[in-house]
Write a structure and sequence with these properties.
This protein has 469 residues and is an alpha/beta fold. It is built from 15 helices and 14 strands. Helix 14 runs antiparallel to helix 15.
Length: 469
Amino acid sequence: MAVPGMAVEQYGLHGSGTSNPSKLIRRAFDLLEERAKEPIKMTYRSVGSGVGQLEFQGNLDGMVPYSHFGSGDIPLSQEIYDNITGSGRTPLHLPFVVGAISIFHSVTELDNDESPLQLKPCTVAKIFSRKITTWDDPEILAENPSVLEFIPRGQAITVVGRTFGSSSTASLTGYLHEACPEEWPADRVGSTVNWDPEVVTREESDGTSRYLQNNPYAIAYIEAFHGTNLRLKEIKLENKAGNYIHSSDADIGAAADGALNAGIIPESPEASWAQVEIFHQDGENTWPIAAISYFYVDRDLSSLNETGRLLEAFLKFIVSEEGEEIAASFGFAGLPPSVKDIYSQALESLEFAENTTPWTFESRDVTDVGTGQENHVFSGKRQTYAEYDRGVLSTSVTLLETQLAELSSRYEDLMQSTGGGGSTSNTAIAALVISIVATLMSGFLLYMVMKPSRGWQKSGVPVTLDGNF
């Protein structure tokens, strides 16, 4: 006898594309997986915007996409847009957040707070085109007179670029052309660049970050939140207003407002967005290398059957209040209301197979008696123990961070009061306590990273993918 409301089907949803919002997407997937009663499998391959576009386009022979959706920090190129529409499909752009690309360095002798580097866009262009090859170049010294006091004379700059199609590359090159066209011509703008042979190339943000962490005197462009979260040294960039700013102090979302006011953004999600870019916009505190992140989705999802409904639910969750809170926690800015309206238009235009069931949501704060236990419901009342455990660990780490900051402050005061010497025992004890707390924090963080996040991943339960995949 079948029990009413028991799960009987299994679903899969799979996307690919840009690495910049990958943590946001995967976090949303984790939450949806644990809140569903039916077994679902949701994956996202972080392969760069260029690959994400090609996999959404599919094989040129049949134009059947390799993924259920794509994602990128650049709109579909005009060529790919024309290929898809020419095959009879209607691709939609769903803009969901604004992110920042920034430039980081690994000059050992420079401190990000005490002696931050600052650069004009033309100086950056000359570094990445290899016209400037040493850290003591006169143009760098003109903006950073104190650099010469810290680094060796004639120290070479190692430039790190990205391989394959990268939206970060498109953002950097688009910004350099917009802000300094005399040094970065239009034919060097795009998601791929023919770098100088001396430029080191790496895949994805992780590969670029690891290079900076392990090699001194290098410079690279990385998604801003990713780089600052790793405590890489960020360069202050001069924006259009002539102000030098770090991304953490800038208004990221203001770039989208500027583009909207300039009429750069189309009014329809079905239109070609190939010319949309929001680099080097006006504003005293506007970040100069900002980019809109998009989902690429087919309007007609009927061939995906129930997976089409799962994709619809994911797209709704990302722009929900909870989804926007998660996005903000990863350093993303929201979009202006009129751009959000375009996202809503796209959701409303989606077409599904007959007899498919839309997913609904049960709030974490309000119990839907009976209906919350039905199929096709993402319930905020469901939570894995791993999720609870991560919350406890996160709270513990926050407390330890506060205690470490307090101890560090007391240590600084003690050192100043003794003139850097004085009571050896007191300073030694303070230093020891700080070391112990830092070690405990590292242990907690390592445990959080290594801890399996999903019980079902070890269960061996088979997953049947629905919808031609």
